[in-house]
Amino acid sequence: MELCFYNSKNGYLEAILRGFRSSFLTTEEYKKLTEADTLEDLKSILEDTDYGSFMMDEPSPIAVTTIAQKCKEKMAHEFNYIRAQAEEPLRTFLDYIAKEKMIDNVISLIQGTLNKKSPEELLSRVDPLGYFPQMKSITSMDVQNSHDDVLKVLLIETPIGSYFDKYLSTNTPNEKNNVSTLLNDMDIEILRNTLKKAWLEDFYNFIRKLGGKTEEVMGHILKSVADFRVLSVTLNTINSSLSLELQKDRNDMFPCFGYLYPEGTDRIRKCWNNETVHAALENYPMYYDLYEECKQFYMKNENMNENKLVDNNIKSLEDLLYVKLVKLCETAFDQHCHFGIFYAWVKLKEQEIRNIVWISDMILMNRKECIASIIPIFEPQTDL
Amino acid sequence: MYNSWLEIIRSISPYNWALYGIAMALFLSIVGAAWGIFIAGTSIVGASVKAPRIISKSLISIIFCEALGIYGVIVAVLLHIKLTGLKQEVQVPLVLTDKTDPLIMNTIWGGWGLFAAGLTAGLSNFASGISVGITGSSCALADAYNSDLFVRMLMIEICASVIALYGLIVAVVSIGDVQLT
């Protein structure tokens, strides 16, 4: 029955989004990009694709960051076009997608303000998808001198305020919520991960309420994303130089849903090095194999300290997880009449921007042989 | 005085049922056609933003839906022709024997038959409308992505629209059988 009623509210937007989907860079275009010698050539090749003249006004020596920023602006422009016309519940769904970027923006603004960078520089490097007007007041936040309540109001007023609230209430149960010490002392990464966990759980509850095909498709995607978070948080803390006590904090960053929840996360909680994590993942063949593949990266990391890690054959967990995410998002487009395609499009566009930035970096560093490690999107299946 | 619900329903005049048949035929066909048009139309409009070439071909889906409205009108008009005004008030007896007046028999058969014919045509157009709409929307989206797919998807749509024709045929045949003098 969903098929009968979906189109009245969302038919136009879904069709527009599928139009965007057909404008991803193809393998031929990636080949052309790899043959570019300078960034100017790259820019002119991109002009032939759907990107068009998006960088027309940039002055001649373009930097890689400008390319990335302009690509993100184009994506944000298309996303906002869709969001402006969306009706409930699609509107809330798209807001959730934007909130993820808002979290990243707020964290980078806080970091920048603490390091005393200028507001204009910070605001120009903000991700345009997660833009919200109250952002500017964060740059003028004075952490040392302001009263705690002012800081609290500032953070809670943002659209992601409820996640900050949850973080503050769980982290300082005994004393009064002492925001300024929290912002100065604790690791910003822990804050970011906790906010992302709160956002993921919120999003998951929302799609559970929506039900139907959206729940089916997005449920699968979000559960996989939650598992990826668990794996990457675990590996990052184990392989970093954090003390064991801070490592215990990582347990709070595991989302309360996902295919690994609750038995898998329970076993991973008790692990303290790579081998035990490997053993804990025994029951989940996909993650077990994933871990096998990227083990080499981390062992090599321990053995030698030189910068030989851009070796093509050894991928870190992040690279492998990106590949898995791309596959998930591609399959989301195979069904009609659900909201998963909006989320999938945003993720695939991000991956494409990462690919373009990687190619530009490799061109600048004159290491064209590494260009093959970009992740192709919607590659035509030839092995059927 | 009526003794049960059955008596009440039985004694509703057959002309009443016949006129409801006309209303149902037209109403359900129009709802089906409208539903189909909005399902297919929103997708066609959105998909043609990035791929303007699909517009002319996708109008076929809309025309299929429109045809369902026309079938509804045909059936309604045919039904109406059979009804030439009340000749006499008919009392439907509870039990029909072979001694009942043939006029009453004809009227009862006519009334209920026209109702059934109208409902047949109406409901089949309604179902076909939704079906053509959904396949039309998928057809437009597939065509926008890859133009080879259009003709194959059109086969499916043709099948979806032919089922309305079956309803029309059955309705017309049942109407032909009726003699409301």
UniProtKB/TrEMBL annotation, chain A:
<dbReference type="Pfam" id="PF01992">
    <property type="entry name" value="vATP-synt_AC39"/>
</dbReference>
<dbReference type="InterPro" id="IPR002843">
    <property type="entry name" value="ATPase_V0-cplx_csu/dsu"/>
</dbReference>
<dbReference type="InterPro" id="IPR035067">
    <property type="entry name" value="V-type_ATPase_csu/dsu"/>
</dbReference>
<keyword id="KW-0813">Transport</keyword>
<dbReference type="GO" id="GO:0046961">
    <property type="term" value="F:proton-transporting ATPase activity, rotational mechanism"/>
</dbReference>
<dbReference type="InterPro" id="IPR036079">
    <property type="entry name" value="ATPase_csu/dsu_sf"/>
</dbReference>
<dbReference type="InterPro" id="IPR016727">
    <property type="entry name" value="ATPase_V0-cplx_dsu"/>
</dbReference>
<comment type="subunit">
    <text>V-ATPase is a heteromultimeric enzyme made up of two complexes: the ATP-hydrolytic V1 complex and the proton translocation V0 complex.</text>
</comment>
<keyword id="KW-0375">Hydrogen ion transport</keyword>
<protein>
    <recommendedName>
        <fullName>V-type proton ATPase subunit</fullName>
    </recommendedName>
</protein>
<comment type="similarity">
    <text>Belongs to the V-ATPase V0D/AC39 subunit family.</text>
</comment>
<keyword id="KW-0406">Ion transport</keyword>
<dbReference type="GO" id="GO:0033179">
    <property type="term" value="C:proton-transporting V-type ATPase, V0 domain"/>
</dbReference>
<dbReference type="InterPro" id="IPR044911">
    <property type="entry name" value="V-type_ATPase_csu/dsu_dom_3"/>
</dbReference>
<comment type="function">
    <text>Subunit of the V0 complex of vacuolar(H+)-ATPase (V-ATPase), a multisubunit enzyme composed of a peripheral complex (V1) that hydrolyzes ATP and a membrane integral complex (V0) that translocates protons. V-ATPase is responsible for acidifying and maintaining the pH of intracellular compartments and in some cell types, is targeted to the plasma membrane, where it is responsible for acidifying the extracellular environment.</text>
</comment>
From TrEMBL, chain B:
<dbReference type="GO" id="GO:0046961">
    <property type="term" value="F:proton-transporting ATPase activity, rotational mechanism"/>
</dbReference>
<protein>
    <recommendedName>
        <fullName>V-type proton ATPase 21 kDa proteolipid subunit c''</fullName>
    </recommendedName>
</protein>
<dbReference type="Pfam" id="PF00137">
    <property type="entry name" value="ATP-synt_C"/>
</dbReference>
<feature type="transmembrane region" description="Helical">
    <location>
        <begin position="112"/>
        <end position="142"/>
    </location>
</feature>
<keyword id="KW-0375">Hydrogen ion transport</keyword>
<dbReference type="GO" id="GO:0030665">
    <property type="term" value="C:clathrin-coated vesicle membrane"/>
</dbReference>
<comment type="similarity">
    <text>Belongs to the V-ATPase proteolipid subunit family.</text>
</comment>
<dbReference type="InterPro" id="IPR035921">
    <property type="entry name" value="F/V-ATP_Csub_sf"/>
</dbReference>
<comment type="subunit">
    <text>V-ATPase is a heteromultimeric enzyme made up of two complexes: the ATP-hydrolytic V1 complex and the proton translocation V0 complex. The V1 complex consists of three catalytic AB heterodimers that form a heterohexamer, three peripheral stalks each consisting of EG heterodimers, one central rotor including subunits D and F, and the regulatory subunits C and H. The proton translocation complex V0 consists of the proton transport subunit a, a ring of proteolipid subunits c9c'', rotary subunit d, subunits e and f, and the accessory subunits ATP6AP1/Ac45 and ATP6AP2/PRR. Interacts with IFITM3.</text>
</comment>
<keyword id="KW-0812">Transmembrane</keyword>
<feature type="transmembrane region" description="Helical">
    <location>
        <begin position="154"/>
        <end position="175"/>
    </location>
</feature>
<feature type="transmembrane region" description="Helical">
    <location>
        <begin position="59"/>
        <end position="81"/>
    </location>
</feature>
<feature type="domain" description="V-ATPase proteolipid subunit C-like">
    <location>
        <begin position="21"/>
        <end position="79"/>
    </location>
</feature>
<dbReference type="GO" id="GO:0033179">
    <property type="term" value="C:proton-transporting V-type ATPase, V0 domain"/>
</dbReference>
<comment type="function">
    <text>Proton-conducting pore forming subunit of the V0 complex of vacuolar(H+)-ATPase (V-ATPase), a multisubunit enzyme composed of a peripheral complex (V1) that hydrolyzes ATP and a membrane integral complex (V0) that translocates protons. V-ATPase is responsible for acidifying and maintaining the pH of intracellular compartments and in some cell types, is targeted to the plasma membrane, where it is responsible for acidifying the extracellular environment.</text>
</comment>
<keyword id="KW-0406">Ion transport</keyword>
<keyword id="KW-0472">Membrane</keyword>
<keyword id="KW-0813">Transport</keyword>
<feature type="domain" description="V-ATPase proteolipid subunit C-like">
    <location>
        <begin position="115"/>
        <end position="173"/>
    </location>
</feature>
<feature type="transmembrane region" description="Helical">
    <location>
        <begin position="20"/>
        <end position="47"/>
    </location>
</feature>
<dbReference type="InterPro" id="IPR002379">
    <property type="entry name" value="ATPase_proteolipid_c-like_dom"/>
</dbReference>
<dbReference type="InterPro" id="IPR000245">
    <property type="entry name" value="ATPase_proteolipid_csu"/>
</dbReference>
